[in-house]
Amino acid sequence: MSLSSSSNDYIASLNLLQTNIYRIGGPILVVFGTLSCLLSLIIFIQKDLRKSPCAIYFVAYNIANLVYVYFVIFITSLGWGYSIDPSDYNIVYCRFRFYFYYLFGALSPFYLILASIDRTLITSSTIRIRQWSTPRVAYLAIASITIFWMIFEIHTLIYMNIYQINPYYSSCTYTPGIYTTFVNYYQLIVRGLLVPLLMLVSGLLTVKNIRGMHRIAPAASKVIVRITVGNGRKRLTQKDRQFILMLFIDIIIYILCTIPRPVYLIYTQATQYETKSAERQAIEGVINSVSLFTTFIPTCVGLYTNFLVSKNFRQNVKKILQVNRAYCFCQSQ
Questions:
Q1: How confident is the model over 56-89, as pLDDT tens digits?
Q2: The pLDDT of residue 249
Q3: For residue 230, is it left (φ>0), alpha (ψ between -120 and 50) or beta?
Q4: Which of 101, 61, 28, 34 is nearest to 292 (CA)?
Q5: Per-residue pLDDT averaged across 126-147, rounded?
Q6: 254, 196 in Cβ contact below 8 A?
Q7: Contacts for 303 with CB less than 8 Å, ≥ 6 apart
Q8: How far out from the chain centre does Cα 248 lie?
Q9: Are 40 and 307 in contact, with CB atoms under 8 Å apart?
């Protein structure tokens, strides 16, 4: 009897932990994510930055992150942390909730990949390749990738349904069978393997290009590297260099925070036909919650990591805060 009671207490503690991850951590991510995305957007649309293709990608990236914060992180926190989830009884809400989850969960990292590819282009020693790094190409790439994922993720508007789990509980979830398997492998292959691989490849190519440059002592602090190709020259400015550094940090954080999710999905696929005890199911529930929660982190920390690694970014943040402080002071007079 005491063993059964101890087991029940253990399971209850794990369930409470799973709830508190989103009850406490969810609102924190929403607040920090909102500030991060809004301030980053204000900075990247500044006149001295918005003509840069990389800044355009960062604008798209932060817009996608902001939508993700409210349509995914906020809604997930309400459901898992506070048991407020209209998708359990509203089929339209159910399907669009998962549509936005998968859509912006794909757009955000792919905008980051586009930015990384742009840095690979801009650091190339071939002038024809560098000419592809333009605002026009950036807008076309963003539009193309957005349309592709909007169409590709339509499956969620068809196959997500509300199922009765028991007489007192229903849930919005995947259609059992082939579709559930497809979704698991899709998350594993695309989000767990393909996205990090593309980020690593483009990042390594950028590093290779930078190492292959002919370095000279700059006459001014703004000029870091000069590439000579025939009669054409390309200067890698301090701004370009800091864009690359910010991008690398974002990629590293994304990869580190998303690794637990595909590992967990591999485990669930490998053990899906095993009979599991209540304790094991509770432990897996906590691991599922933690692995999903960590995937939310990269969308909420861009401002803070950029602030640490980029001098220009810090200066822009300080200018914005000073302007707002002056505005508030004038309003109070």
A1: 999 999 999 999 999 999 999 999 999 998 988 8
A2: 92
A3: left
A4: 101
A5: 94
A6: yes
A7: 35, 36, 37, 39, 40, 317
A8: 14
A9: no
pLDDT tens digits, one per residue of 275-302: 888 899 999 999 999 999 999 999 999 9
Q: Count of residues for the chain?
A: 333
Q: 160: closest CA among 170, 173, 150?
A: 173
User: Residues 6 or more apart from 60 whose CB is under 8 A from it?
Assistant: 107, 111, 114, 142
Q: Which helix (H) or strand (E) holds 119?
A: helix 91-122
Output the CA torsion sign for 20, 24, 30, 33. Answer: negative
**Can you read off the two tokens belonging to residue 27?**
């609102």
Mean pLDDT of the chain: 85
Task: List phi, psi (to 5°) of 114.
Answer: -60, -40
pLDDT at 166 over 90: no
Answer whether residue 218 shows pLDDT above 70: no
Amino acid at 90: N
How open is the CA angle 216-219-225, to the nearest 5 degrees?
40
CA 300 to each of CA 31, 32, 64, 234, 248: distance values in angstroms, whole numbers, following the listed order: 9, 6, 11, 34, 16
**Three-class SS of residue 20?**
helix
Q: What domains are defined for the chain?
A: 18-332 (1.20.1070.10)
Categorize the per-residue pLDDT at 323 as very low, low, confident or very high, splitting at 50, 70 and 90.
low
Band the pLDDT of 29: cuts 50, 70, 90: very high
H helices of 69-90, where? 74-82
Phi-psi region of 7 (alpha: psi -120 to 50; beta: other; left: phi over 0): alpha
Q: Report which residue type is found at 211.
A: R
Q: What is the mean pLDDT of residues 259-269?
A: 86
Q: Which residues of 237-267 are buried (b: 16+ CB within 10 A; e: fewer)?
A: bbbbbbbbebbbbbbeebbebbebbbebbee
pTM above 0.90, yes or no: no
Instruction: Give the E-state strand segments of the chain in sequence order.
Output: 160-166, 169-174, 223-229, 232-237
| Secondary structure of residue 229 in the 3-state scheme | strand
